[in-house]
Specification:
Elements (H helix, E strand, L loop, with lengths): L9 E8 L6 H9 L17 E6 L3 E7 L9 H16 L2 E7 L6 H11 L6 E6 L6 H18 L3 E6 L8 H10 L18 H14 L11 E9 L10 E9 L2 H8 L4 H18 L3 E9 L7 H6 L3
Parallel strand pairs: 1-3, 1-4, 4-5, 5-6, 8-9
Antiparallel strand pairs: 2-3, 7-8
Helix pairs in contact: 6-8
This protein binds guanosine-5'-triphosphate.
The site of guanosine-5'-triphosphate has 23 residues, from helix 1.
Pfam family, one: MMR_HSR1
Keywords: Cell membrane, Cytoplasm, GTP-binding, Membrane, Nucleotide-binding, Ribosome biogenesis, RNA-binding, rRNA-binding
InterPro entries: G_ERA_dom (IPR030388), GTP-bd (IPR006073), GTPase_Era-like (IPR005662), KH_dom-like_a/b (IPR015946), KH_dom_type_2 (IPR004044), KH_sf_prok-type (IPR009019), P-loop_NTPase (IPR027417), Small_GTP-bd (IPR005225)
Length: about 300
């Protein structure tokens, strides 16, 4: 018996990179078809690599969502940049996102210049949010992306316009990404959408809820650690309850007040929103126990960073 006549199966990893807010998480969700990575109106919500998996008969594409690359100002900034570079080196293809409703800027140039240093790695340019721009603007944008490639010595394997919200060209992007993967077997079982541990998914959802509405006051000062998570013992099998004990860390006591709110009203709201999201994703009723703690200047302290998982 020979399997030469079987269609080839491809599998591998891709990651989306780009400045904050360019639509990386939304695109990951559009490709995977379920809410796995966390989207938000606020920049820099994606701190840790969360993967979504695209299952197709001919391929399995594993998407790694990285934080944005920044000129580092703190130790956390340096760690995040290291994480981004490690990811680039490990994946099969890197897709850089440039939103159509914004001009190419110094942040893009910095990122693409850094990415150009990773040689022999297929790079795709994605012009995101095409639904927010007219045809002329899109054409201008695509030319600017090509020019940026020339300036930085980056050879784009493809330049693809897409809209994650309307779904336009998302299928084409999936085909192009798959085409850059090596031949290989399925790496994850069917139906598995993310290999992010459930604790990480829960922590991200709590962080997202906690940041909602306090963008100006607390841009990037919140970290969440799930201390304990497990099914409550002694429950009937058809009525499970997942206990989650989580700490929400802020840097200063003034921030603690903002997160907790008047008589704890805001923290209760954050807890309710996060609990509903976690229940929806994990499919189990949840009891969420949430505490706010101060980890003084955690972004600058190596010991705190380690504790918070960076
Ligand atoms: N109109 C439109 N809006 C989009 C599209 N894709 C993303 N957005 C919006 O752009 C904002 C940022 O999207 P995200 O997917 O969170 O961006 P991101 O690049 O992952 O952001 P960070 O995690 O901060 O790096 C959100 O408000 C999205 O709803 C799109 O195709 N069209």
């Amino acid at each position: 018996m020979s399997d030469e006549t079987l269609p080839e199966h491809r599998s591998g990893f891709a990651c989306f990179v780009g400045r904050p807010n360019v639509g990386k998480s939304t695109l990951t969700n559009a490709l995977v078809g379920s809410k796995v990575a966390i989207t938000s109106d606020k920049p820099q919500t994606t701190r840790t690599a969360i993967r979504g998996i695209v299952h197709r008969p001919d391929a399995q594409l594993i998407l790694v969502d990285t934080p944005g690359l920044h000129r580092p100002r703190t130790l956390l900034g340096e760690r995040l940049n290291d994480l981004v570079r490690t990811t680039w080196a490990e994946v099969d293809v890197v897709a850089v996102c440039f939103p159509c409703d914004e001009k190419i800027g110094p942040g893009d140039r910095y990122l693409v210049t850094e990415l150009a240093k990773v040689r022999r790695k297929p790079k795709i340019a994605v012009a995101t949010k095409t639904d927010l721009a007219g045809p002329e603007r899109i054409t201008e944008h695509l030319l600017a992306i090509a020019e940026l490639g020339r300036e930085t010595g980056t050879e784009w394997a493809e330049i693809v316009p897409v809209s994650a919200t309307s779904g336009e060209q998302v299928g084409l992007l999936a085909d192009l990404l798959v085409g850059m993967l090596p031949e290989g077997p399925q790496l994850y079982p069917d139906g598995e959408l993310t290999d992010a541990p459930e604790e990480q998914v829960a922590a991200e959802l709590i962080r997202e809820a906690a940041l909602d509405g306090v963008r100006d006051e607390l841009p990037h000062s919140i970290a969440v650690v799930v201390e304990e998570m497990g099914l409550r013992e002694g429950r009937p099998e058809d009525k499970p309850l997942l206990d989650i004990h989580a700490n929400l860390y802020v840097e200063r006591s003034s921030q603690k007040g903002i997160v907790i709110g008047h008589k704890g009203a805001r923290l209760r709201e954050v807890g309710t929103v996060a609990r509903k999201q976690i229940e929806a994703i994990l499919g189990t009723p949840v009891y969420l126990d949430l505490h706010v703690k101060i980890a003084k200047d955690w972004q600058r302290d190596p010991r705190q960073l380690r504790k918070l998982g960076f």
